[in-house]
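user: can you give me the structure for this one chain? C-alpha coordinates are fine.
assistant: on it. calling the predictor now.
[tool input]
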Amino acid sequence: MPKTKRPSLSFRNEPLVTLEVGHEGDKFHVHKSLLCHVSPFFVAALNGPFKESSGSMELGEDEVDTIEHLIQWLYGGEVEIAPLDDPQCFESRYTKLTRLYVLADKYDIVSLKNDVMHLLFATIQHPDGRFRRPVGVNPVRVRLSADKIIYVYANTVRGSLLRKFLISYWAWHRGLSALEDEETWDKLEPCPEFAFEMARALASLANGRPDPLLDITNFLEPTPDSAKP
Protein backbone atom coordinates (compact mmCIF):
# COMPACT_ATOMS: atom_id res chain seq x y z
CA MET A 1 0.00 0.00 0.00
CA PRO A 2 1.49 3.40 -0.97
CA LYS A 3 2.15 6.01 1.66
CA THR A 4 -0.57 8.56 2.27
CA LYS A 5 0.40 11.82 0.56
CA ARG A 6 1.08 14.73 2.85
CA PRO A 7 0.69 18.40 1.92
CA SER A 8 3.77 20.58 1.63
CA LEU A 9 3.66 21.87 5.16
CA SER A 10 6.28 24.01 6.77
CA PHE A 11 6.85 23.35 10.46
CA ARG A 12 8.84 26.56 10.97
CA ASN A 13 7.25 28.45 13.86
CA GLU A 14 4.29 26.06 13.63
CA PRO A 15 2.58 25.63 17.01
CA LEU A 16 2.57 22.28 18.74
CA VAL A 17 -0.42 20.74 20.46
CA THR A 18 0.07 18.60 23.54
CA LEU A 19 -2.23 15.58 23.58
CA GLU A 20 -2.73 14.20 27.08
CA VAL A 21 -3.76 10.60 26.50
CA GLY A 22 -5.29 7.93 28.70
CA HIS A 23 -5.96 7.89 32.41
CA GLU A 24 -2.30 8.63 33.17
CA GLY A 25 -2.24 11.65 30.85
CA ASP A 26 0.74 10.51 28.74
CA LYS A 27 1.85 13.49 26.67
CA PHE A 28 2.39 13.61 22.90
CA HIS A 29 3.48 16.80 21.13
CA VAL A 30 2.07 17.10 17.61
CA HIS A 31 2.10 19.88 15.05
CA LYS A 32 -1.28 21.56 14.95
CA SER A 33 -1.24 21.87 11.15
CA LEU A 34 -0.96 18.10 10.73
CA LEU A 35 -3.89 17.37 13.03
CA CYS A 36 -6.05 19.98 11.32
CA HIS A 37 -5.13 18.78 7.83
CA VAL A 38 -6.51 15.30 8.41
CA SER A 39 -9.36 15.87 10.85
CA PRO A 40 -12.35 18.25 10.87
CA PHE A 41 -12.72 17.36 14.54
CA PHE A 42 -9.34 18.86 15.36
CA VAL A 43 -10.02 21.88 13.14
CA ALA A 44 -13.09 22.66 15.24
CA ALA A 45 -11.44 21.81 18.55
CA LEU A 46 -8.30 23.86 17.93
CA ASN A 47 -9.72 26.79 15.94
CA GLY A 48 -13.39 27.10 16.86
CA PRO A 49 -15.02 29.32 19.48
CA PHE A 50 -14.37 26.69 22.15
CA LYS A 51 -10.79 26.05 21.08
CA GLU A 52 -8.23 24.67 23.49
CA SER A 53 -6.51 27.96 24.36
CA SER A 54 -3.87 26.26 26.49
CA GLY A 55 -2.41 24.38 23.52
CA SER A 56 -3.26 21.02 25.03
CA MET A 57 -6.12 18.57 24.67
CA GLU A 58 -7.20 15.83 27.02
CA LEU A 59 -7.92 12.51 25.28
CA GLY A 60 -8.52 10.57 28.45
CA GLU A 61 -10.70 7.89 26.88
CA ASP A 62 -8.19 6.97 24.20
CA GLU A 63 -5.48 4.32 24.43
CA VAL A 64 -1.87 5.43 24.43
CA ASP A 65 -0.72 2.76 21.95
CA THR A 66 -3.46 3.63 19.48
CA ILE A 67 -2.72 7.35 19.63
CA GLU A 68 0.95 6.50 19.06
CA HIS A 69 0.01 4.59 15.89
CA LEU A 70 -1.99 7.64 14.78
CA ILE A 71 0.98 9.96 15.29
CA GLN A 72 3.34 7.58 13.47
CA TRP A 73 0.90 7.65 10.56
CA LEU A 74 0.64 11.46 10.68
CA TYR A 75 4.38 11.95 10.26
CA GLY A 76 5.36 8.83 8.32
CA GLY A 77 2.37 8.44 6.03
CA GLU A 78 1.85 4.77 6.79
CA VAL A 79 0.53 2.57 9.58
CA GLU A 80 3.19 0.63 11.50
CA ILE A 81 1.56 -2.60 12.67
CA ALA A 82 2.87 -6.14 13.26
CA PRO A 83 4.06 -7.69 9.95
CA LEU A 84 1.96 -10.19 8.02
CA ASP A 85 4.71 -12.79 7.82
CA ASP A 86 4.61 -13.47 11.57
CA PRO A 87 1.81 -16.02 12.26
CA GLN A 88 1.89 -15.30 15.96
CA CYS A 89 0.96 -11.65 15.34
CA PHE A 90 -2.32 -12.24 13.51
CA GLU A 91 -4.63 -11.64 16.47
CA SER A 92 -2.56 -8.71 17.71
CA ARG A 93 -2.50 -7.18 14.23
CA TYR A 94 -6.25 -7.50 13.81
CA THR A 95 -6.91 -5.99 17.26
CA LYS A 96 -4.58 -3.03 16.70
CA LEU A 97 -6.03 -2.30 13.27
CA THR A 98 -9.63 -2.37 14.47
CA ARG A 99 -8.80 -0.10 17.40
CA LEU A 100 -7.01 2.32 15.07
CA TYR A 101 -9.98 2.32 12.69
CA VAL A 102 -12.33 3.09 15.59
CA LEU A 103 -10.08 5.98 16.68
CA ALA A 104 -9.96 7.36 13.13
CA ASP A 105 -13.74 7.11 12.95
CA LYS A 106 -14.10 8.95 16.26
CA TYR A 107 -12.01 11.88 15.01
CA ASP A 108 -13.28 11.75 11.41
CA ILE A 109 -9.90 10.94 9.84
CA VAL A 110 -11.14 9.43 6.60
CA SER A 111 -7.75 8.88 4.97
CA LEU A 112 -6.54 6.89 7.98
CA LYS A 113 -9.69 4.76 7.95
CA ASN A 114 -9.03 3.92 4.31
CA ASP A 115 -5.38 3.10 4.98
CA VAL A 116 -6.39 0.79 7.84
CA MET A 117 -8.98 -0.89 5.63
CA HIS A 118 -6.30 -1.66 3.03
CA LEU A 119 -4.26 -3.30 5.79
CA LEU A 120 -7.25 -5.31 7.00
CA PHE A 121 -7.68 -6.60 3.44
CA ALA A 122 -3.99 -7.49 3.32
CA THR A 123 -4.49 -9.44 6.54
CA ILE A 124 -7.16 -11.69 5.01
CA GLN A 125 -5.91 -11.96 1.41
CA HIS A 126 -3.09 -13.80 -0.33
CA PRO A 127 -1.05 -11.70 -2.78
CA ASP A 128 -2.98 -13.33 -5.65
CA GLY A 129 -6.26 -12.02 -4.25
CA ARG A 130 -7.57 -15.27 -2.74
CA PHE A 131 -8.93 -14.98 0.76
CA ARG A 132 -7.19 -16.88 3.48
CA ARG A 133 -7.70 -17.97 7.01
CA PRO A 134 -5.29 -16.52 9.56
CA VAL A 135 -1.72 -17.36 8.58
CA GLY A 136 -0.14 -20.21 10.51
CA VAL A 137 -3.23 -20.85 12.62
CA ASN A 138 -5.23 -24.07 12.65
CA PRO A 139 -8.51 -23.01 10.96
CA VAL A 140 -10.52 -25.39 13.13
CA ARG A 141 -9.41 -23.54 16.23
CA VAL A 142 -9.82 -20.02 14.89
CA ARG A 143 -12.78 -18.28 16.46
CA LEU A 144 -14.16 -14.80 16.09
CA SER A 145 -14.14 -13.97 19.78
CA ALA A 146 -17.18 -12.34 21.28
CA ASP A 147 -14.98 -9.66 22.82
CA LYS A 148 -13.76 -8.52 19.39
CA ILE A 149 -17.29 -8.40 18.00
CA ILE A 150 -18.63 -6.52 21.00
CA TYR A 151 -15.77 -4.00 20.82
CA VAL A 152 -16.49 -3.17 17.18
CA TYR A 153 -20.24 -2.89 17.70
CA ALA A 154 -19.90 -0.87 20.91
CA ASN A 155 -17.65 1.68 19.22
CA THR A 156 -19.25 2.06 15.79
CA VAL A 157 -22.69 2.98 14.49
CA ARG A 158 -25.07 1.27 12.12
CA GLY A 159 -23.72 1.49 8.58
CA SER A 160 -20.08 1.40 9.72
CA LEU A 161 -17.77 0.03 7.04
CA LEU A 162 -15.76 -1.74 9.73
CA ARG A 163 -18.89 -3.65 10.73
CA LYS A 164 -19.53 -4.40 7.07
CA PHE A 165 -15.99 -5.75 6.68
CA LEU A 166 -16.30 -7.98 9.73
CA ILE A 167 -19.71 -9.34 8.71
CA SER A 168 -18.70 -9.89 5.07
CA TYR A 169 -15.58 -11.84 5.93
CA TRP A 170 -17.23 -14.13 8.42
CA ALA A 171 -20.42 -14.67 6.39
CA TRP A 172 -18.80 -15.30 2.99
CA HIS A 173 -15.54 -16.91 4.10
CA ARG A 174 -16.00 -18.45 7.53
CA GLY A 175 -19.69 -19.08 8.13
CA LEU A 176 -21.45 -19.75 11.41
CA SER A 177 -19.13 -22.67 12.23
CA ALA A 178 -16.62 -20.09 13.47
CA LEU A 179 -19.19 -18.97 16.02
CA GLU A 180 -20.65 -22.32 16.93
CA ASP A 181 -19.64 -22.54 20.58
CA GLU A 182 -22.45 -21.75 22.99
CA GLU A 183 -20.30 -19.59 25.23
CA THR A 184 -19.64 -17.14 22.37
CA TRP A 185 -23.34 -16.72 21.64
CA ASP A 186 -24.10 -16.22 25.34
CA LYS A 187 -21.57 -13.39 25.47
CA LEU A 188 -23.09 -11.87 22.31
CA GLU A 189 -26.58 -11.69 23.80
CA PRO A 190 -26.17 -7.94 24.57
CA CYS A 191 -25.24 -7.35 20.89
CA PRO A 192 -28.36 -8.23 18.85
CA GLU A 193 -27.28 -6.03 15.94
CA PHE A 194 -24.48 -8.48 15.12
CA ALA A 195 -26.87 -11.44 14.92
CA PHE A 196 -29.26 -9.44 12.73
CA GLU A 197 -26.55 -8.27 10.33
CA MET A 198 -24.98 -11.73 10.17
CA ALA A 199 -28.36 -13.26 9.34
CA ARG A 200 -28.93 -10.68 6.62
CA ALA A 201 -25.48 -11.32 5.14
CA LEU A 202 -26.02 -15.10 5.15
CA ALA A 203 -29.35 -14.56 3.39
CA SER A 204 -27.57 -12.50 0.72
CA LEU A 205 -25.04 -15.30 0.32
CA ALA A 206 -27.81 -17.91 -0.01
CA ASN A 207 -29.48 -15.75 -2.67
CA GLY A 208 -26.31 -15.72 -4.74
CA ARG A 209 -25.29 -12.13 -4.19
CA PRO A 210 -21.60 -11.44 -4.88
CA ASP A 211 -19.07 -11.28 -2.11
CA PRO A 212 -18.63 -7.59 -1.12
CA LEU A 213 -14.96 -8.28 -0.36
CA LEU A 214 -14.24 -8.81 -4.06
CA ASP A 215 -14.13 -5.01 -4.40
CA ILE A 216 -12.30 -3.06 -1.72
CA THR A 217 -14.01 0.15 -2.78
CA ASN A 218 -17.13 -1.20 -1.06
CA PHE A 219 -15.28 -0.48 2.19
CA LEU A 220 -13.56 2.84 1.42
CA GLU A 221 -14.89 6.31 2.09
CA PRO A 222 -14.38 9.23 -0.30
CA THR A 223 -11.68 11.54 1.01
CA PRO A 224 -12.06 15.31 0.67
CA ASP A 225 -9.64 15.28 -2.29
CA SER A 226 -11.28 12.38 -4.13
CA ALA A 227 -14.72 13.84 -3.48
CA LYS A 228 -13.89 17.00 -5.45
CA PRO A 229 -15.19 17.17 -9.03
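assistant: here you go. The two ends are 25 Å apart (CA to CA). The longest helix spans residues 90-106.
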